[in-house]
Amino acid sequence: MDIGYYPGCSLTGTAKEYDQSIRRVFSELGINLVELDDWSCCGATSAHATNHLLSVALPARNLSLAKKQGLKEIFIPCAACYNRFVVAKYEMEKNPGLKKRVEEMIEEKADTDIGIVNMVEMFQRIDKELILAKRQKELKGFKVAAYYGCLLVRPNSITQFDDAEMPTSMEEIIKLTGAEPVDWNFKVECCGASHSITNMNVVLTLSKRIIDDAAENGAEAIIVACPMCHSNLDMRQRNISKQDSQHKNMPILYLSELIGLSLGLDKESLGLGLHFTDTEPVLSRFSTAIVAKE
Amino acid sequence: MMRIGVFVCHCGENIGKTVDCPTVAKEAIKLPNVVYSIDYKYMCSDPGQNMIKQAIAEHKLNAVVVASCSPHMHEKTFRKACAQAGLNPYMCEIANVREHCSWVHDNVEEATKKAVDLIRMTVERIKFNFPLSEIKVPITKKALVIGGGISGIQAALDIAGAGFKVILVEKEPSIGGHMSQLSETFPTLDCSQCILTPRMVEAYQHPNIKLYTYSEVDNVDGFIGNFKVTIRKKARSVKENLCTGCGLCVQKCPIKKAPSEFDEGLANRPAIYVPFPQAVPNIPVIDRTVCTFFKTGKCQMCKKVCGRDAIDFEQKDELITEDVGAIIVATGYKLYKIDKKSKDAAVKGYGEYGYGKYKDVIDGLQFERIASASGPTAGEILRPSDKKQPKKVVFIQCVGSRDPSKGFEYCSKICCMYTAKHAMLYKHKVHDGEAYVFYMDIRAGGKGYDEFVRRAIEEDHVKYIRGRVSRVYEKKGKYIVKGEDTISGVPVEIEADMVVLATAIVAQPEAAKLAQTLGIPYDKYGFYAEVHPKLRPVESSSGGIFLAGACQSPRDIPESVAMASAAASKALVLFGNEMLEREPIVAKVNENTCVGCFYCKKVCAYNAIELKEIKDKKGNLVKVVASVNTGLCQGCGTCNATCPSKSIELIGFNDEQIFYQIKAL
Q: Which of A29, B199, B507, B541 has the most CB atoms within 10 Å of its CB?
C-alpha cells in the first residue's frame, strides 16, 4: 500500500528518531511511504500566531503538491503539523472566500479532498492480526501511559478524535505489544509545547505534572505521538531532576518505537540512542519468547 | 357568469410604499370577469371590510380577491367578511402582495407589475373555486393525560375540576414524577413532597380521574375529538383490587440489593417494592428482572406472607382501550447520564469529570436525594463512598448544556437555580463546609430568582467561580477539580470531597417513539414541538393534542404547572363545543380511478389515509381503495402530489385551480 508522507521539520531535526522508527516500522508492515516532493513548513506555531491567512496557505500549498503528485492521502506523524493541516482543510471547506484568498497567495488551486492521517489512525488502519503475526517480542505486564497531548485530539469538531478529553484509541494499539496501558489523568493535558524555548519554567511545571501523574498511576514509561511532547517530556527531565531531587527518570517513547521494538527491530535503527532519558528500562522488559503463530 | 371583485390593500406603508396600489387596482379591473376593483389603506380594518361587503351587494360579486398580506394573517378575516355579506367564504382568495412582493422588493415599477401578476393568477384560480362548507365532527368529552408528574397531575386536576372525565397514565408504579424526588424547591425552599403529595392524593381520589400507573400508551388512532387510545397496563404481579398496601411483602422480600430508581441508585430496594413511602397508589410492584421466583422458580416469600392473596405471578400485560376527545402529553424529562457507551452521536460524554468512575461525583438528582429527608441519608449530607460529611463540595453547572461541541446547544434553564439551592442547602447543613460553583453565566430570570442566587452568594457565602472545569481526578483521597477562573484569568484547582454535576436536561429516551405514535412533531433533541412558540405554546400541530411541562423543553415547576393549566384550558375550550367545525380543505379520493397502490398512505404525515373496500351489489370485494379520514387530514397536499394515477385531489387546491393559476403567469 502506498501513502503520501509528510515528515515536517521536527522529524528532520529534533525528532529524527521518530522519522527513523516510522520508516522502519511501516516498511516492515508493508506500507510504502511516498515522501511528498518539495514539501515545505506547515507554519506551525509561528504562522498560526501571527497571520491567519499564512497559517492556512502553508498547509494548502502542501496539499496542492500532494494532489499534483497523485497522492490521495498523506500521513503526517507530527501532531502539530497534523493539526495545522486538518484545521487548514476544514477552514477552506467551510469558507470559500478564504480558500480563494489562499489560492491567490499560493498561485495554485487549493485542494481539500486529500485525506490527512495521523499517527494513531495510521496504526488503526493496519490489520491487528498482521502486527500480532509479525511480533517478535512482547512487553508482558509492562505498564505504560498513553499520552496524547493537545494537538492530536483538539479541536474535536475538526479532528473527530474518539474522545477529545478521554481518548482510548492509542491504548488499543499499545495493547498489541503486550504492554498494559494505565488509567491516568493527564493524557490530554498540555506539556507547554513551544514555551520550552521562551519560558522554560512553564514547561518544567507542566511536564513534571504529567510525568508525576503517570508515575503515580503505575506507569513505567510514557508513549507519545508528537515530537513536541517528546522533546519536552524527554529532554526536560534533566532540568526537572535539578529542581526535584526525588525525580525518577521516566522513559519517553514514540508509539512507532514501541511497535518497532515489539516487531523485533534493533534499537539503533529505531533511533533509541537519540533520547535524552534512558530507554533501557523499557528495552530490558521486552521478552523474546513469542510462540510462533500457526 | 363569474363576477369578481378585487380589493387592493396598502397595509399602511407595508405594501403601499413599494407597490403602486391605485395603479394595481386600475390594472385589475381590466382582467376578464373582474367587475369591480378598489384600493384602500387598511383593508382589514372595519371600513375596509365594509367596502368588501358593500361591493358584494352592490355589484353582485360572486367571488372576491383580496390583494394583501399572507393568508396566514387575514384569510380568515376576509372570508368572514364575505360570509357576512352572504357569499360562501371559500369564494374569497388572497393574493399575497406583501410577503411575496412588497417586503422583498424595492423597485416600485417592477413590484407593481408583479402585484398585478399575482392578482391575475389569483383571479384565474378563483374561477375554478366552488362553495364549500365546514366539516362537522362530534367530540368525546374526555381527556387522556400522558405522564403523572406535576404537569400531568395539574392538567388532570384542572380538567376533572371542570367536570370532565380524565384518564391519567403513568409509566412508573407511582405518580409524582421528578418533583417527588426533590428535597426543597427554589426560590422559597419549601419541601417538595409536602406541596406535591396532597396533589397526588387528590388526583388519585378524584371521582373524575381514572388512574393507570405502571402503564403506557401503546397506540393512538382517530383524530381531534375522537381518539381511540390503547393503554398497556404492565403486569404489576400484584392484584390492585386486593392489595391493602400493608407492606409486609416488601419487608419480607429476601432480595434487598436492587438499586432504587427513586433514590437514583444511592440506596437499594427489594424485588417487590413501592418506590417511596408516599407513593400513589400505595401498591407494590414486582421487578421481574431481579425477583428470585422469576429467575429460578423458587421463593414466593411475598405470596406466602400476603394475607389478601394479592400476589399474582401469572399476571400478564393488559390492553385497555379508551375513547377520548383530547390528549395532553406531559411526559417530562430525564437528566443526561454521562455514559461513554451511549450510541447517541450527539452526546460525546464528559468522561473527564469522572462520573461513574468516582462514587462521590454525582448528578443533581442524586444530590436532591442526599439532601432530602426521605433520602438514603435521611437528609444528612454524607458522601456516597464512605458516608462521611464532605467539607468541600464543588458544583459544576452546564454539564452538557450550552456546549455544542460535546453536549447540547440549548440551556437547561433550571440548573442555575437548583445549583444555588444545592449549595445553599449544603451550607445550611454543613456550617463549616465550603461550597464552590463553577458557572458560565447565572441565568436567574424569574420571580424571586435572582434574589435567591444573591442570597446563596452573600448570606451563605457560596463561592462562585466563572469558568469551565476541564477535569476532575482523584489524588490522595481528594477529587482535584481543575478549572479556570475567567474573571481573574487564572487556572484554579480545588481539592474537593464531593463533586455535583448539573447535567443537562434531556428528552425522555422513548420521546420520539411516543411522538410517532401520537403523530406529533419533535425537535432534533426529542423535545415535542409546539405549533407556535409564542402564540400557541401548548398546542401540538396535531389537532386535539396538547403539550405541558418539560417534554417540550427544560422547565421548572412554576412554568410546568402554568403550562399544564394552559393545556388543560385548551382541552376545555374543545369540550365547550358540541360539534367541532373544521376547514373543508381536505383531500378527496376518486374511487373510480384509484388503483389502491397506497403511496398516499406512505407519505401521509397525519395517518389520514384509510383503506376502503369497494363491493359490488352481491357483496363481493371488487377492490380496495384509499379513503381520507377528514378528521385527521390537514390538507397539506402531499398525497395529491404523490398519487401516480391522479386520483386524489385537495379540495380548494385542485389541479385546475393550480394549473390556471400558473398559466396566468
A: B507
